[in-house]
Every structure is written in C-alpha cells, then in structure tokens.
C-alpha cells in the first residue's frame, strides 16, 4: 500500500523530523544539567515549573524554521553546502523567534547560557544528522515499485513530468506496459514492457507495489480481472490523475474528465464556519504583520521617492479578478517606471527592463506585496490562494486554458501553492502550469495546508526567490 503523506511531507521526512526532535530534546536536557553542575546558581529552583515552556521555546521555533527554509522538502535540490547554510539560517531564525516571544510576553528568559550553547550544539548535531540521512538516502524510505499500464500519450505525461531523479524519490519506475489503443508516439526513454505472461504474474514476479492505469483507450481494453486479482493481493491500483496529483502536487488539467471531478474527494461546497474562521485568521494576521512591518514599508516609500523624485507615486493600484470573478483594486508598492504600460497591458517577465532598482529589490524579497495587507483587511484577499490576475489576461486565458475560471472559486492570496511549486513565468504555458497547482490547492484546501504554505513561503522571502 502507498504510504500516507501530508502533501509533500513523506514518511522519510516524518522520521527525520522525529529524530531531530529527539536530538533537540536531548541537547536541551544536557544543557540544563551542565549549567546545574558547573553553574549551580544559574538556574534557581523557581524556574523548575517553567522548564517545559522554555523547552517549547527552544525546540519548536527551530523545527518550524527548518520547515520554513525547505529542509523538510524531500525533493529539495540543494548541495550539502547549501544544506549547511540553510541549517545555520534555521537555527538563527529559531533563536530570533524565541527571543522575540520572550520580549513580547511575560515569560522571563532562561538564566545562564543554556539557549546559546544549546543552539550551537543543535547546529553541529543537526548538520551531522543531515549528513547521515543523505548518506543513508532517507529520501527513498517507503519507496514503491510502480508499473504504468499504458505507453501512449497519457502515459508519456508521467515520463515528461517526472523525468528527474528528484521527481522519483518516492517510487521506482518498473516500466510502461504497451496497451491496445495506445498512441504510437509515447514513451521515449523509459523501458516499454511487452507482456509475455499475464499481468498479475508479471506484477508478482517483479514485486510491483502499485499499478498506475494510464492507457489511452480504456473501454474494453483494460485487463479488469487481472487488476481485480492484483488488488485483492495488496497491490495498489491508481488512476493516472491521482498518481500525478500525489507525486507532483498538481492536477493534470489536460487529463481531467468530468466523472473524475464528480467522484473525487475535495472541491467541497461552501463551508460557512471555515469562511468565518478564515476571515478572522486573515484579519488578525494582517494586523500583526502591519504592526511588525510598518518601518520597512516607510523605508520603502522613502527609497522610491529618492530614486524617482518627490512627485513620483509610491503605490500603484490595479484592477484584478477576485472571488467568483468579481473585480477589485489591488494595492502594491510601485516597482516599475511610471510609464511601464505606455504600450498597453503586458505581463511582467523575469529581468523586466521596466523594473526600477528599488523595485528589483522589493520584488525579490516580496516587500512590494506588503500594501496588499489592506486588501486582506477588506476581505478581498486572503494570505493563501491563487494569485489574482488582471481582467485583460483573464479574458484571454479563460478562452485558451480549460478550467481556468475554477481558480476564482476561492479568494486570491498573497502567496499560494503555485508560488511554492513553480518558478516565475509570464507565458500562457506558465499560466497553465500554475493553474494545475491552483486546482490542487482548491481541491485540498484546509487550514493545515494554509499554515504549511505560509511557513514554506518564508523560504522564498529569506532566500530572495521572488522575481
């Protein structure tokens, strides 16, 4: 059976999380005992009842920071030197978070040097754990042997979408079985299997854990009896749409058929309790962020004025399409020249010459998005959701991309699943790819997924992965 997972957090990642939690706990306890032994007056007895609180303020900010910088992403493509750099950032960020909590709450800082020495020990220990985990190939834990039933046009999407090693860390592709009715042009590099025996015999002989049904023509062509026999003996049978959704975090729009949407889980109707909670969560978080970021916003406004002159506008407002296709005015810091659209509406591109020097910096670190907190407070946007697009482009994309209008079934957001999973792009093909991730988010939308996206967005901000 395919191992359960929470979106892109797999069994190997969960084990790594638990091991690191145990190590951080041990470091904290050893640090306390060392301070008691060598500095007996450093931790007075009245602290004894609060040690659990201090433990939480040491461990959880670090592990939350590790998640935020992408170190719990099993498909992360990073050198080990990059892993060390990210681990240093996560330890420093965890220390900063706990220090901020101490400063903003009545909790008193733990006396002595327990936190500082523990952070140093945590950095060294966690780097060693990562080295051992990579050496032991923890990414392959729970790896499944997968056989694709089909070798035509539909099956070729798996080959194209998951051709890199990082895309296949959770499964070992046995091969593609050629089926009657498959298109001639299909699989190019992966092995194509011509069965000389029954499907179930091949499956059991090659220890296949999962069969993915991806044939071009299913009617009267599927070996139903063999699939039924395999299912009874514990082999997972998966539709290609569900397989791509699970492994890539996107919905293959070009493969969708109406019955799949009707019978699949997700795409729920309105949940009024969730909507009310969303509004409260987004509003409180927006006020909190405004209280923290207003100095950066003021500095940004001053820098824009210095670069472009006192009479130049700091903000720009632009019409976007929101929930249920309703237009609204989005507010951002101006990052382009004042005559950026003298030749008409056009999508921003990577390395766009219209972007100013200040604009390039604030776009890279997403500072230009901060004024959209106003849109969040007005209820026009949330923190998480598909990015809102301009009406001119929406009209074009609705005509050329199937299901594009479905992204307007939820509020647009400051960040989203597509922003985490797909690099910046400005073409129609990029819009199609982003839609696949947006539909995945709409189908699986939950408070926990929103929290995961918000935490993972810190990686984009910290490492400047904006455009």
Automatic annotation (TrEMBL):
Membrane-protein topology: Multi-pass membrane protein
Keyword Transmembrane: yes
Gene Ontology biological-process entries: colanic acid biosynthetic process
Transmembrane segments: 12-31, 51-72, 84-105, 117-136, 279-304
Entry protein name: TIGR03013 family PEP-CTERM/XrtA system glycosyltransferase
Cellular localization per UniProt: Membrane
InterPro entries linked to this entry: Bact_transf, EPS_sugar_tfrase, Sugar_tfrase_EpsB_2
MF terms in GO: undecaprenyl-phosphate glucose phosphotransferase activity
Keywords annotated in UniProt: Membrane, Transferase, Transmembrane, Transmembrane helix
GO cellular component terms given for this protein: membrane
Domain Bacterial sugar transferase: 280-462
Upper taxonomic lineage: Bacteria, Pseudomonadati, Pseudomonadota, Gammaproteobacteria, Alteromonadales
Top-rank taxon, per record: Bacteria
Claim: Nuclease is one of the keywords in the record: no
Family from the record: Belongs to the bacterial sugar transferase family.
């Amino acid at each position: 059976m395919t191992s359960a997972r929470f979106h892109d957090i797999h069994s190997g990642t969960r084990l790594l999380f638990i091991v690191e939690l145990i190590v951080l706990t041990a470091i904290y306890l050893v640090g306390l005992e060392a301070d008691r032994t060598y500095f007996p007056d450093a931790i007075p007895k009245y602290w004894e009842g609060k040690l659990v609180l201090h433990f939480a303020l040491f461990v959880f900010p670090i592990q939350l920071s590790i998640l935020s910088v992408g170190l719990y992403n099993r498909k992360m493509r990073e050198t080990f030197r990059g892993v060390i750099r990210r681990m240093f950032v996560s330890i420093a960020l965890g220390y900063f978070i706990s220090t901020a909590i101490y400063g903003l709450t009545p909790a008193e800082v733990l006396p002595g040097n327990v936190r500082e020495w523990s952070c140093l020990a945590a950095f060294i220990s966690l780097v060693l754990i990562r080295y051992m985990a990579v050496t032991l190939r923890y990414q392959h834990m729970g790896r499944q042997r997968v056989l694709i039933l089909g070798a035509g046009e539909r099956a070729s999407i798996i080959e194209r979408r998951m051709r890199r090693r990082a895309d296949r860390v959770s499964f070992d592709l046995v091969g593609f079985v050629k089926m009657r009715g498959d298109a001639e042009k299909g699989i190019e590099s992966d092995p194509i299997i011509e069965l000389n025996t029954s499907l179930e015999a091949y499956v059991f002989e090659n220890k296949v854990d999962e069969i993915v049904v991806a044939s071009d023509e299913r009617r009267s062509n599927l070996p139903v009896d063999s699939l039924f026999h395999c299912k009874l003996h514990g082999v997972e049978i998966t539709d290609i749409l569900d397989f791509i959704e699970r492994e890539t975090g996107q919905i293959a729009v070009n493969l969708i058929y109406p019955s799949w949407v009707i019978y699949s889980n997700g795409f729920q109707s309105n949940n009024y309790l969730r909507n009310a909670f969303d509004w409260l969560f987004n509003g409180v978080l927006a006020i909190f962020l405004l209280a923290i970021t207003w100095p950066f916003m003021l500095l940004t406004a001053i820098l824009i004025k210095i670069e472009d002159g006192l009479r130049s506008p700091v903000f720009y407002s632009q019409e976007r399409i929101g929930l249920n296709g309703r237009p609204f005015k989005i507010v951002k810091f101006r990052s382009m020249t004042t005559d950026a659209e003298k030749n008409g509406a056009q999508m921003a591109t990577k390395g766009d010459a219209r972007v100013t020097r200040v604009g390039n910096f604030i776009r890279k670190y997403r500072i230009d998005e901060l004024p959209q907190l106003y849109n969040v407070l007005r209820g026009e946007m949330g923190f998480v959701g598909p990015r809102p697009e301009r009406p001119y482009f929406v009209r074009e994309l609705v005509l050329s991309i199937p299901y594009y209008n479905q992204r307007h079934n939820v509020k647009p957001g400051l960040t989203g699943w597509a922003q985490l999973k797909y690099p910046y792009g400005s073409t129609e093909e990029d819009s199609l790819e982003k839609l696949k991730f947006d539909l995945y988010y709409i189908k699986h939308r939950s408070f926990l997924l929103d929290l995961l996206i918000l935490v993972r967005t810190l990686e984009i901000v910290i490492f400047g992965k904006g455009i």
